[in-house]
Fold each of these.
Amino acid sequence: MSNNLKGNMIIAQSGGPTVVINQSLVGAVIEAKKHKQIKQIYGSLNGIDGILKERFIDLKKENLAILKKVAFTPCAALGSVRKKPTSEDCVEIFKILQKYDIRYFFYIGGNDSAETANILNENAKKEGYEFRCFHIPKTIDNDLRENDHTPGYGSAAKFVAMAVMGNNLDNKSLPGVKIDVIMGRHAGFLVAAAALGKKRDEDGPHLIYFPEKPFSKEAFLGDVEKVYSKYGRCLVAVSEGISNKEGEPIISQFINETDTHGNVQLSGTGALGDLLSELVKTKLNIGRVRADTFGYLQRSFPGIYSEVDAKEAYEVGEIAVKKAVLEGLDGSIAIKRKQVKSYSVFYEPVPLNKVAKHTRSMPSKFINRAGNYVTQSFIDYALPLIGKLPEVEFLKGVPVDNKK
Amino acid sequence: MSNNLKGNMIIAQSGGPTVVINQSLVGAVIEAKKHKQIKQIYGSLNGIDGILKERFIDLKKENLAILKKVAFTPCAALGSVRKKPTSEDCVEIFKILQKYDIRYFFYIGGNDSAETANILNENAKKEGYEFRCFHIPKTIDNDLRENDHTPGYGSAAKFVAMAVMGNNLDNKSLPGVKIDVIMGRHAGFLVAAAALGKKRDEDGPHLIYFPEKPFSKEAFLGDVEKVYSKYGRCLVAVSEGISNKEGEPIISQFINETDTHGNVQLSGTGALGDLLSELVKTKLNIGRVRADTFGYLQRSFPGIYSEVDAKEAYEVGEIAVKKAVLEGLDGSIAIKRKQVKSYSVFYEPVPLNKVAKHTRSMPSKFINRAGNYVTQSFIDYALPLIGKLPEVEFLKGVPVDNKK
């Protein structure tokens, strides 16, 4: 299992950032410094775009104390990109990799980034270029196949849980219908995290809508009306990716922008929240209806992260380097959960094509039958991933007898 | 200066919540328990609406340990309301106050709430009803007259500073134009806080727009273009209250909802962000343009608060009770800053009509001449109010020489 491939290493980041994506970068760089097979450690700026433009930085020249602080700084320290290489790009990239004698390639990202790594790796094999290639997982969507969960999810889920706890208190203060739009293109894991801070039955979120279940405006209005008549208020968490029966995102009626992977823009707009808000206002005749779209705060808010998520993000970077250097492997590092009582994980290299391109959805056991809330099974799954939530407390509220 | 008025006390919360509004409630209740002049301590649910409906809870029956946790729980523990009493309401309220022998009245809120307290107090005088009445300040907008700053502002400003720090990192990762819409109906204090986490020249926010300066679409587009061509990206913080030369809110082109104080709905919609985003996309032909509206997160996010803000919020509650009970005063408690080198404040009772109804704006020395950023004077003013921000760090980024 030893590996004698010597050369330079390059590492890059791709796709939407997370709060812990630099943990993986720093974990990989610190590990790489230990191995004599790796000579130079290059960071490519803005993913494969940086390779094509030969925009590299020398990561061996970074001070260790700074690196450790960068690990706790949200978003891609090397810059990111959303770009799928064309076959011409691949030809060009190989010329550049050869020129710089790059033999170790690490790409931190989600399913699209795994696809990019896979394309490059397949091309390397075809061209007979000796090359170790690892995808290092990250996505707040938690939708990578083969993984129990992905780095970035725990911290984003913690942010969402906290934000919704606050929104519940706000909605209790000034009752009405409140709609929170939460990220998640195809998978409902993040919107589901809205439930993780709920303390009492009457607390919100009262309803959660997932991309996995066809969204019906009629059912939605019926649900909201029911909760509103019971509690005099209603807090709803909605995934930005909710789609109709035909699988078309509800938001695509408003937005037409797509990236080179063919993804429709879902975030960075309040359109979906405003549409749903308008619907409740007009159809249910409820006065106070508000919508907030949490947007990029979910993946970039400094200071709020899950300890376990930060640790795992660091370790997948570290282990990808070990597997490439010590065992001469290619692939992606998957996080698997041990089937034991207290939370514990192990890491497993898996083939690139098993995580590339296609995503996974929430298991159906995580969504209730009505398709409008999570199950206890989801809570048990997700709680260990987010760490400690802030404590909130309520007055006992002993009523005063009315005087005559 | 002694006061022998004996009777029951009522306390209520009104207007938009803050993260520290319960500090004031708990400060007042714990103080009130010490004074024999105060017999029962009633909490009215949902402000004056709770008085009109006689929905009171017995705050003496709350456990001290729970109260102390409630103090750190965001949003109005008693529930809030947006309601200006009519003259009929006032007649009704006095009947109820007399029936419950309420002689001490404390109303936690902003300028609209001070107005409500003022109306009640004027009516009490007119009717010859012996009555001590205090407004306890709170508003994330920081726009109460007579105050150096208001409880709730420091914590909301900290949230905004942190969110924008994260957005700067996100925007650096995936460059483009990013617009963050921040609360603040008439005053730019909160949007100005976007600058408080900025570390280096190239960091965002690059531009800040205030309700105090007429917003011109042409000037805005020119500013964005200039920043974008310099840094390849641009992060903009915009107040929800930006208005045209005629003083009409830009957002009022889209939204028509108003409350009983005559305020147009500005929050709980992504419309303004989306409008500005569309403008940049179409007029400047920039591909990646995103907008986030921070919305209610700014006033309700649990766990993020400024220590100094929490302490001051507690103390204004405590001192209002002292001034009413020990000195027999009516009024509002204003926070004044001592003119000394290190940050320090004192509290001063001021007449209700001096803080009621009208708000104050940002002093012009806090806004730069171009009207698109804050001055150092603002930074010096605001930094002591928000406490410690999380540390973020950047790679040194030593470029690798290009190989031939």
Amino acid sequence: MQQKPIILVTNDDGVSAPGILHLSNIAKQYGDVYVIAPDKPQSGMGHAITINSSIRIQKTNYHTGIVEEYSCTGTPVDCVKMAIHKILPNKPNLILSGINHGSNSSINVIYSGTMSAAIEGSLEGASSVGFSLCDYDINADFSATTPFIEKIISSTLTEPLPKGVCLNVNFPKLKADEINGLKVCRQAKAGWVEDFEERKDPHGRSYYWLTGKFVNFEPESKDTDEWALQNGYVSVVPTMHDLTAHQVIPHLQNIL
Amino acid sequence: MQQKPIILVTNDDGVSAPGILHLSNIAKQYGDVYVIAPDKPQSGMGHAITINSSIRIQKTNYHTGIVEEYSCTGTPVDCVKMAIHKILPNKPNLILSGINHGSNSSINVIYSGTMSAAIEGSLEGASSVGFSLCDYDINADFSATTPFIEKIISSTLTEPLPKGVCLNVNFPKLKADEINGLKVCRQAKAGWVEDFEERKDPHGRSYYWLTGKFVNFEPESKDTDEWALQNGYVSVVPTMHDLTAHQVIPHLQNIL
């Protein structure tokens, strides 16, 4: 009998978040699902790992029809490492991260715990996909994402992603019949115009909250994830961990 | 009278670490230096930002001959945002991060708090450089790094780095007369063969420590940072925040 694929499911919103419950529920149709996810929200953790303290895991029981699930005191990247090295019976055939409550398109990818888990998965040599819905509401409706997630799982199980590349998939906040389809695109040049809101504690000392406004620096470019999302598409960006700006090397060799 | 350049200095080892003291001491020859750095070690924080809690800053007094210094309860990325939006009198001409106690070459760049500060700086439109010494010792000897840091500061103040590109500079653990010079190169394909060491707490429950062994997957390639460091060079990798695997887009457009 052929073995079923091993699918690891993780996220950055915590093991019991609605988004990961939706994702594991789809994934279990395609293989043996293991969930290892943070025990608390880890949004904005980027590619953080835990090296100055130890990590604990705890069996949990939020998901149905899967093999095993654990909450982990570490970051999303820690969850992937822990799963691969301590929990899974074999290397996973697929790593799925999300569904994140909120966008991870364009520049958000570098701050994203969801995507760092997917990037870590690709470093470990597994096909990995991060999913995010452009809706921060804890009660967001994930139903429209289902057929696209099914298509991507099925496709990546049939043909693994190129080595070192994972997918950053973002869903617009739309109903199923309003979505125009999948669009493979590139990370838009965008940024946050930020500020810190200063407040005073009861003892008169200042503290600050990070605030900001998202700006797409190239709203006219039609090959970006931001354009896709604005125009009713599910954006799919192939994402890698080589940060080298190769085109700049000759210039620097001249001046340094 | 011409205004002096504004130089922001930060790191991930904390505001009073020997590496950042060495760096601010060099930087102050070139402009008005502001130090804003974490109040505690933040190694392995990747591109984490603080969004679920507030941030505080505190004036400190570890550096000499600079304009102002603060410790910050946030991550290295938070420090850069805070400095630019709340502390500096104008946009910085240069952002320097480090000198990190330990290597940030090859794949380490994605886990690195030092480099995330530099990447954030480049996102904010400032020439930014992260420096790391391949020596984890808190009493490491930083003296051999001085002439190279001087050259890089001088060069980047004269000619700002291309938009969206920062530098990842790593120093080998060598004496000044053993270093062969600067080498502009690319991020090596490398990884960590990891494991978790399991221990039992006094109550018999398991906890885990991340451990691992670094492996260069392409030791023969002479254009990588790992090769440069192994062969006595200071490695300089231009580094960016566009994670798109552009070459994979056509393939994915075919299969999705």
Amino acid sequence: MANDILKYLKEKKYISGEVLARILGISRVAVWKQIQKLKNMGYKITSDQNLGYCLVSRPDLLLPQEIQRGLSTEYIGKEIDYFPELKSTNTTAKEKALYKAERIDEGKLIIAERQSAGKGRLGREWFSPAGGIWLSIILYPQLFPSYISRITLTTAVALVQAIKACTQIESQIKWPNDVLINEKKVCGILTEMSTELDMINWVVIGIGINANINICDFPEDIQKNSTSLKETSGKEVSRVKLLQTFLKEFEKYYEKLKKKEFSSILKECKFFSHTLGKKIRVDIGEKIIKGEAIDINESGALILKKEDGESIEIISGTILK
Amino acid sequence: MANDILKYLKEKKYISGEVLARILGISRVAVWKQIQKLKNMGYKITSDQNLGYCLVSRPDLLLPQEIQRGLSTEYIGKEIDYFPELKSTNTTAKEKALYKAERIDEGKLIIAERQSAGKGRLGREWFSPAGGIWLSIILYPQLFPSYISRITLTTAVALVQAIKACTQIESQIKWPNDVLINEKKVCGILTEMSTELDMINWVVIGIGINANINICDFPEDIQKNSTSLKETSGKEVSRVKLLQTFLKEFEKYYEKLKKKEFSSILKECKFFSHTLGKKIRVDIGEKIIKGEAIDINESGALILKKEDGESIEIISGTILK
């Protein structure tokens, strides 16, 4: 009901409680109650005795109705669970994903304004204050578990494209799961899945975008390696628009991936790669491997040419400074 | 308390309620209540006015106290959740595994006397009536997600060894996840895991053993390809002893796997393999591949030599008749 009222408030500069009550078939008191609810969400609504209600401004929140208004995807983001704060959107998403039996739909989003225990890869902390975009996408692709790298890189390509479209900022993909601007981290991706030997039960893609965060607010130890879109462009970005653009891009690439058409995505991934052509050291858990990043293959693995000339394939790892 | 009483009942032929009450520091009425509880679980206990209680027989149930009595593992099976019936032990185990935060211990078991919706690989049904052994093991190994095949094969080797030790029956491993006796399925393994790019969050190994099931009770469509230990040996097996033996074997091999010492397990896996040396057709989801199974490699993948002479590596698939 609040959503319906919002629709009319957005259409007209002024609309009276009486008219709203008539259109929606509810009492004027009920209209008033819904207006209070919207105000509590952060909508600024004035009321003039003669002219009626007027929507002055919308909150800068990733509210489902804000995201879904004008969202042109087929299924990504058609269902959104929104929280002012969560420990971690991935944790909540994984709990929901488990109950596929209860018909969680493909492309459902879990969004939080901030995370109290945001996570990066390998259990690392991810700083997630208000102003960023913290979300998880729940998917049930009929793909092999080995697609996990491809899913992560596909998400990265969609992020780079969405950032470019909304802010004109060029960003780059640091294999396997980060997006950088000027060598500094602006987005991170944490893909988690439940699998059998040769079947994915569910995938949860956690995405963190440092949107409107001041660099001075970052913890000291990550300040020099982190950046935000606001910091880079010198102005706040519309988080809603950026998210909508990302979801649209993501759906486009994900559709390709589901058809196993990764080649064209890979081409873009290589084009935007921050990693290729560099001499790097990669921590693969058991050891650190040195070499030149010469390619990313059709599985999303990094091909490293070691100093002895041998080329090896790395499924995942951390590129060290 | 019921467990303590059981301990004394097992130690002595007769023990009076009075003595039990004194040893345990409870009232005779409390002793009587615990005896009733044990009777309800299926323990046959007689009481003689002069001599006291006598344990006549134990139920043929996989009760935690039965399994843990004499179980010589370090940590596998130290915690057991037991259910007369579950939809699927893996489903329950996955729910528990998700909440690692709540300190589910490595090696916890979920056991059910029967499953109403037992599952095999790729969502296939698994017939799970009373008399079989249906369990899931929850683990948190620090291994790469690509270890899923190795974990499954390791479990298979432990099953073959346990069956041999308890029943003298020789069984074989049908790659990637079944155990056969005389070409017929006697055990199935369903490994599921939650992963990141290069980290396992949790593993749930679902194990089904057709122990004391009459072949005529199997659904018609799987009768000709299924067997049970009872059917093969002509007599009932002690499910408790078999399970204890399996858990001990499993822990031994799993310890090796965690130290990344798969070679020796692989050697046994090949020795017990039903698949190697055979000309087979493998359904890998997208297509069916024909060839000779010539090897299982260090990752647990099957090496198939195709008719054109090319050898390919298959991570997982279904071997067709």
Amino acid sequence: MYWSKFFIPTLKEDPIGTEAVSHRLLLRAGLVHMLTSGVYSYLPLGLKVLRRIERIIREEMEAVGARELFLPCLHPLELWKKTGRDQVLADVMIKFQDGRGRSMCLGPTHEEVITDLVKDFVKSYRQLPVVLYQIQTKFRDELRTRFGIVRACEFIMKDAYSFDRDKEGLKKNYQLMFEAYKKIFARCGLDTLILEADSGAMGGDVSHEFMVPASIGEDHVLLCPSCGFHSGLHGPKEEDGLCPQCRKATLTKQVAIELGHIFQLGTKYSLAQEAYFLDEDGQKKPMIMGCYGIGVSRVIAAIIEKSHDEKGIIWPRQVTPFDIEILPLHASGQDEEIVTLASRYHDELTQAGFDVLVDDREDTPGRKFNDADLIGIPLRVIIGRKNLVNGKVEIKNRQTQEVILVDKHEVIKTLSSFL
Amino acid sequence: MYWSKFFIPTLKEDPIGTEAVSHRLLLRAGLVHMLTSGVYSYLPLGLKVLRRIERIIREEMEAVGARELFLPCLHPLELWKKTGRDQVLADVMIKFQDGRGRSMCLGPTHEEVITDLVKDFVKSYRQLPVVLYQIQTKFRDELRTRFGIVRACEFIMKDAYSFDRDKEGLKKNYQLMFEAYKKIFARCGLDTLILEADSGAMGGDVSHEFMVPASIGEDHVLLCPSCGFHSGLHGPKEEDGLCPQCRKATLTKQVAIELGHIFQLGTKYSLAQEAYFLDEDGQKKPMIMGCYGIGVSRVIAAIIEKSHDEKGIIWPRQVTPFDIEILPLHASGQDEEIVTLASRYHDELTQAGFDVLVDDREDTPGRKFNDADLIGIPLRVIIGRKNLVNGKVEIKNRQTQEVILVDKHEVIKTLSSFL
């Protein structure tokens, strides 16, 4: 891909009104655009990152037997009245009456809708377990939107739901999801803290949160610097306490962001919505449910919070929008040999399976270097006249800032060995 | 993939209340589920079809230089007031006030939002042309929803937008889109009629509709049975007229469904929203816009309308959810040799790049044959005891109903030669 044919509107200056590094860099690197407070568009570069994260999530969901579907945004409010969550979530729910007088809402989550769907089809224990997931937009009427895409009115979530015959089935699916979540976050380059948590508005007994320490967080965790023990912060009394595992160490309080939350829901929804099945013994029983969410938009913000420097983003390999950026540098005007070489590298690296971006703009080397640091592609090939007279080009690692000089014929081979 | 591990809730009986064949088959084959009138979920099999169509669209959009982004569903009504379309589209627009008192609406289309985005970034003729597209959910407050996913309150569209310096640029991008649309529909197995059309609520001078004759249509076209001449039906006087090209032939009126509509918008939005750029001559000029829509959900319905028989759907190769279905048949209980062979074919065909479904349910051959006809996978491998004693299995073509007997060791080779 060529910069001039893509759409990467980087900003020369820091945007105003951003509290968080990730929010600032998302805007400045041309990844997102704000339509109105709490509502963002994903620009082509941001969408590429989103798609890479979605792909990791899909692979891990499919690996544990979850199947993808796509549920609607528009929900009849009637359905939410069955579980009483039209009241519980009243503050964040966007409601309206449609032209034919139906009370509708925009889905802030999908437990009610998936239960309604599964109960229409699943009648017998033979059809269980069923595990379904989607990646879909959610809506919340947030009064205090914050940190860009972190706490927004419209955001992208992966939500999965399991339906089982019994508690053993639920526990098995819960454990599979638990392990899948660990893999997903690890593949995104994130170290998560896993906390037993309160089930809140979701209901159910057991739940776990997947948190990443980051200044954009709105939650707190207590961490032991000696042994790595951590726990959620549920009240002021826990603050400054001792670590229960190594008695002398003091727990430190840290801000963290919640990226995932999984719940053993039990029968809350199946009872309220009459999602019954006939068991082997001929008895009518409520399905035993679990639900499993990941804030996909939040994952992007968390990655940037964790992986950046003063110059810009440093994408981990697995989620970078492009693998390699090629910078043809021109002292004045277009240098034919450099242009040709850039386009040859582009074609050969693409052929070799890499996703390659060429900054073909007629711009100064300075601007190109700054933008390359800003958008944070892991590896960079710099083609300049000074080195080219000796038959060399530079390869630069965005993270380590390490630069090596390579023979111009060895570029493909060298890069292939890196990736 | 195995049927027992997927989620394909086929219905034994026709659902009630469906006027259209496609609506009936979408429900019966377990492709979609109705949440409430005009609002549908895509089940895993339906989502696979949707993804295949989306992939064709993306490939053809990228081929003409359009870049994908993802715009929000929530729009500030303020933006729509600038173009006056809060009034023009008032009947179908879903509006609400959020918690902080902002007047918002759900996007029925995205001209206002994309213009707002592009004007923030594009300041100079050097940055033009810009062509962007998205595949995103749209919302319409339809009083009379019809034909399932055809006229719904929530539906999936591909919408592209071009921004040019001048009319020549617009015409060039319009022509590229025109050709891309022909390819997209052809690849979906659809013969489209292309009509010059009225620009309606979109505005602008020139527009073309891509229509497919189908009983679910809500438009009409006049067709000449002799020469293929066709035109839109704009008034009763045209009915029963003569074909202008072959003077003696009478035009016949036909119901058709609109799948695509492209518009040369000109400056309607850029003037109203002040989307100006500085041209080479230093003059401030409004960008010249085009917009290009495809009703993605509708494409699915149109394909089914065109490609089915009394037993079910017949998927064209390019959009089928699976390439091959394997039916292991059991007279009574599980036949080990048949189970093993089915799983071997599954693995080897998957290895060879096919998307394979095995109906591994413990069900009667009759039920399996009926469901296979219903879900309409193009090629079917039938493994039954009767043929297997002679070392043979059957390969059946869903469309032609042709059956050939093949040596059990020749299955992969034979199928590879078909596809």
